[in-house]
Amino acid sequence: MTGRDAPASASPAGTPGWAVFLACSWTWCIGMYLPLVLRDHYGWAGVAAFALPNLAGIVLFAFAFPAVESSRAAIARHGGAMSWFSLLTIAFHVYFLAAVWRYEFSEVPAALAMLIPLPVVALAWAARALSDRAIVRTATAVYGISMAMTAASAMLLLDDAAPARAAFWAQRDPSGLVFLAPLFCLGFLLCPAMDLTFHRALRSVGGGSAGRRTFALFAAAFAIMLLHTVIYSQTGLRWPAIMHILLQSWFTMAVHWREIEVSRARAVESGAAPRLWAVLFIAWMLVLVPIVDYRWWFIFTGLVFPAWVVLMLVRPRSGRPAASEWAAAVTITSLTPFAALGFLAGFEWLLLVPCVTLIIAPFVGRGAAAESDQAQGGAGASTQPGTA
Questions:
Q1: Average model confidence (pLDDT) for the chain?
Q2: Integer CA distances (angstroms), 283 to 86, 95, 99, 190, in order
Q3: Quick one: which of 26, 48, 68, 69 has the most CB atoms within 10 Å?
């Protein structure tokens, strides 16, 4: 057993250390840029609709997995899907680090923008072998630098002579948030269950009350990260924001790469590495496809993974059997057009379809206990002809 997969009793850091680790691992290219998109689209109400369920999902994770055993059981059953969550997290960052400059800096050449992710990916790959002790210490340093960058951005905000950020994303009717907010709630309440870095921190502090304290501190630390995003949504991506984005993207990719390595070692899947690099290459090349933009990636975090959690994790907790993988694939494929048109094309009312489907999915069908009783009754009837 490696230091990256040590038991909870061998945790090298206490609650504050793991809370800071989580604040950095969860500071994705979502929290670092989606608020800018939502502010352009819907104003400050869009930022609030993003931030509140995000922070709630962090706190509720420790209640959804109250013990270390529940986390281990979820990984044992769904570790493959969770590894895909980590892989797509890395791929999203590869795309983002090449694409964001064309949104915010029209003068940046496309060739230069394409080169920017490469050293960040290389450094993330190099950090994948760090131990828990080393990665928590690294997180503390990373978080401290981000706090310094937040202060520097705040100083730029107070500078009246500094130019304000110009909106890039088209303005939309704020009433569309009525339909978008429920999907945000589902995404941010459910996606944490797929995040292997969340599970690692929970196991490392031992779950229970220590887990709840860790995730409460995590929410507070992450709220400061979101505050920085709010600040540079007005100042634009000046040098403090750029340093913050590059550093946090590196850390997020590194810790998810660690989890993929651990999952691969656990499953002894020697063929995982080629698939990983192929996915990252495709993500990198998507920057060159004109019809694809940053928002397309939210099909995964807003629909695919929340649907998987509902069908595979939530249904069994409600007394229904988990869906088959085929049923999950068909459900997700059927809902994708509604999610895409709702979020990407501005027809937000179409988001009602995936929202309602995911809300009622845990309660559709017979309960597992009823099906077991029926099966036993059927077996009894077959051995006792003449009975009803």
A1: 88
A2: 14, 5, 11, 24
A3: 26
